Structure of ATP-dependent 6-phosphofructokinase:
Amino acid sequence: MIKKIGVLTSGGDAPGMNAAVSAVIRYASSNKIEVFVIKDGYKGLINDWIEQADINYAQNIIALGGTAIGSARLPEFADIKVREKAVANLKKHAIEALVVIGGDGSYMGAQRLTEMGINCVGLPGTIDNDIVSSDYTIGFDTALNTIVQAIDKIRDTMQSHNRAAVIEVMGNQCGDLALYASIATGADVISTSESKLTEQEIVDQVTAIAKTGKRSVVVVVSEKMYPDVHALAEKVEASSGYVTRATVLGHIQRGGSPSAMDRHLAVTSAMFAVDQIIAGKGGLYIGLDGTKLVARDINSTLNMPRKDKTEETNKIRFLNAQFLK
Amino acid sequence: MIKKIGVLTSGGDAPGMNAAVSAVIRYASSNKIEVFVIKDGYKGLINDWIEQADINYAQNIIALGGTAIGSARLPEFADIKVREKAVANLKKHAIEALVVIGGDGSYMGAQRLTEMGINCVGLPGTIDNDIVSSDYTIGFDTALNTIVQAIDKIRDTMQSHNRAAVIEVMGNQCGDLALYASIATGADVISTSESKLTEQEIVDQVTAIAKTGKRSVVVVVSEKMYPDVHALAEKVEASSGYVTRATVLGHIQRGGSPSAMDRHLAVTSAMFAVDQIIAGKGGLYIGLDGTKLVARDINSTLNMPRKDKTEETNKIRFLNAQFLK
Amino acid sequence: MIKKIGVLTSGGDAPGMNAAVSAVIRYASSNKIEVFVIKDGYKGLINDWIEQADINYAQNIIALGGTAIGSARLPEFADIKVREKAVANLKKHAIEALVVIGGDGSYMGAQRLTEMGINCVGLPGTIDNDIVSSDYTIGFDTALNTIVQAIDKIRDTMQSHNRAAVIEVMGNQCGDLALYASIATGADVISTSESKLTEQEIVDQVTAIAKTGKRSVVVVVSEKMYPDVHALAEKVEASSGYVTRATVLGHIQRGGSPSAMDRHLAVTSAMFAVDQIIAGKGGLYIGLDGTKLVARDINSTLNMPRKDKTEETNKIRFLNAQFLK
Amino acid sequence: MIKKIGVLTSGGDAPGMNAAVSAVIRYASSNKIEVFVIKDGYKGLINDWIEQADINYAQNIIALGGTAIGSARLPEFADIKVREKAVANLKKHAIEALVVIGGDGSYMGAQRLTEMGINCVGLPGTIDNDIVSSDYTIGFDTALNTIVQAIDKIRDTMQSHNRAAVIEVMGNQCGDLALYASIATGADVISTSESKLTEQEIVDQVTAIAKTGKRSVVVVVSEKMYPDVHALAEKVEASSGYVTRATVLGHIQRGGSPSAMDRHLAVTSAMFAVDQIIAGKGGLYIGLDGTKLVARDINSTLNMPRKDKTEETNKIRFLNAQFLK
């Protein structure tokens, strides 16, 4: 039976990462396994920022946002010499396996470490919901609620003043934050990274809405799609007549105390990951499949195709545009 | 093609009911179907409290808690004469089909009305997550977040004062609110309607925790399981030594602006229900199956067995009790 | 005794405006005065968008964000001919007095209308807290909480990743939102419209913090002070070494359900305003002075000097910079 | 100049206590004073639970609910022998003065310690707003917002179902939480510890409202005023015809991340307290007087009369009862 494992968080922080770290520590401890936390992701492996986990600490971080054990990017981890240093540090502490919590940027490192003898099991931790091998990712639900609450507030002002708003949300090549937020708020115009509208299409749609006399308009767009959303808002204003402002939600989308379901996914998938490690497995990423957790070979997840959401997006556009006769 | 439909909410109010009503109105309108809202559930059918739906109204209620069109209990709807009055009122308005949003108490009415010529399609609207034919129900996620935030707050005070808390949550024969909330908050002792502890077991578990020196203890119990949770708290205090107070979360669990995922489920399942009605179907209840929506015969859903959660509950107990050596 | 009054909201919407409108309607009704709501501020006066208020409506809007009766800018209200039209419309409805809820942009209109025979009493409704004649304004507390919650979230991410954030908040020439938010969050660097730092000073302060090894830095700045906060963030990054991102909180600061104290101020000052009108007074603006409400001549409020906050700001800088040895 | 001070929290925990502790540590450190935290209030003084404060710790607790340094009751502190032990422990660490954060139960201890040579300065920390020498107390605003959000949620359900709710809130002999919450939510019936209604009066008022056809009723009562609020709800139901349920908000009112204004009061009053200590003063309690902080002799504060709120309460009753013709 395995005696010592490590846990780290990698890539962009996501609400629920702390709940996952907490559950790894608590569940492994319940199973008589010693747990070490690695600070600042793979960077901490290289620098030997490795500390024995404390059970009180594990208790106290469940509800906190961000990642209390730190995260960092480390492109040089692709270099085998760098990874050898990591493995040496792990062996020094007699750590035999790792739970890696992070987005798809952390997959390859987990796979390579497994190949070098350290069994790694990954948890999908990112607000972007861009991990194809899991229906939902840890952090998505919290970020989505933050976005929905922000859009609700902006709608208040738009409705008060007979205006239009262009709102840019995160997603990193995945339109789910934009799409789900649009469903939840009744956004009038939707442009996602997977079902993109041109600037002219956005301008035309808002102008068409203006003709129906609708009091307020909310346009939701994914990040990195238009050169300047403020300039886009000016174009919308010039054509539609609505006073129009752009808001880039930015970094408020990442932090915050995790939602109940993000904590639920974090805790249950963390236990499931530790179960894999106890079973002697590695090179796996945990995913949510319906209401079941599954463990997939990292290599197999890399080629999974992304679900096409064009039809769903168009259906929501049809729903939310009922004003357009 | 169908021309006029009605929508009503039935049973206990749940966050997201308004988002569902909104989506029924907006989606049916987009499909050139006229929508009527029936006030106060089946009671409004009998009393002809039926009004044409307004599209601005539909827009404005998406984010609101409760049910803006009212709900009520009507046991006498089991009487065919009462239902004939309902059908007569619907025919007066030329309403051919109904979307019914509510818990399993509304199933039978929907089935009976379908048999009498009014195609009914139901949406699972209840905070209790006690509808076996759907993985999650509309309102569960919001109520769960309300509970988790309340427990987080109570934990603050228990941790400040070295105390224990007994917290009673809703669930109506279904332990999911209690179980999920315990997972999300690291509750120390868990007793659900599906995996019940005796009062003595609760007292013993808290007393065992006290011996480990843990600073605070949270006990989460489902409603309707113990004659008096305040008396239970006294027993816990007498044995464990922790100053112990009980909190019955009560009606704060029902209201509030719906969470993003409750709105998502409400909106997508509402569209799916209208699609069934357009297809000429009735006697169906919509359920979430993984990430897919399914429409099941009401009769078939009545005999679906409840998932046994004993193993999962015990696993969470094992996780959360890592202090007990 | 006066028989009919109107109520309108003017200028930027602020949380609590609806609670104020609600209290005007309810309190005047309790005093047997008929209330009319004017839609879209002074614009509605000109266009006769005037409707009798409904008591159920008044009940239902207390907790809502924005202004349900609309607001708009109307620079041409400075023209006497335009105002004569407003007075004519008011006389048509036999409305003898007005409660005006809005920022200092609405003062002059209220004063002029009073001089033309319509007694106006104003309530300080703006998130900016820039009305010198009131310690706090309706909407400030809610906006401040929204900002503080946003900064807390951004701090989560900065702390997770060892980064710096530049956060721009509203305030419109008044630094209170920036200053209070900095106090509440422990912001490391503070630049307000009343105690401005140059870009170089900000860069230098963050660079000095970097040398102490502090994990995260939060810089809070008022709006309209730097040509481009994203460019400022780049300069901070270049000098300090922290990865640095700017976030412009923008319109999320205006909306949202009003906080308890914003509702309290809204309701109590609305009753106080109606009391002035009942007493036959006009040309007044209500202000909060400690825990007391006062009614001041509009003319006298125009020359009130703004409180100098330099000393207080410097004290907070001293407090929050304890890392700088 | 003073070199070492201590800080402790006493009595019931209140949101903002951590922000106050944080500011004491940070501000004193900025002033080259060493700070020690005393765990669990006066109990920690006796038991020598005294630790040097850490500046990172001070940073990280600003936004947390409860009191991270613990609190406890210690009636035996009235005994001089017990206090002598406290003074001996403080002298052992060379701690010359104390900041005491807590309600009026901590005043006497602070006064006695001052008389024994340890200058104590108190901060008003309690959710109850029952400290006459301060307009508002640290924690009141957060608790009030928690209550208002809870009542808003309960109103959702009452309005959905045509029901009445009896809601019991905290306050400990002070009606402010009940009164302010009633103002902010438009509660229909209000009974506070300072302006109490008999059970019969409550029943009669709700029954009168029922006759107007109002859809929902909310009754807000202070704690400890009726033997059993559930029995009271039954009486209300029997007379009025509304299905009526009681909710005791209980311990959810104490915890939670502090609001912006609670943190503001905590931080500014903490700095003010340290300033008093630096000036060599003791035996003082800090209070908020309008927007100014004042330091009053503890002895003088003990005899300050409580403000009579009967007139204000009656005015709110008049406002909120506009339905009663």
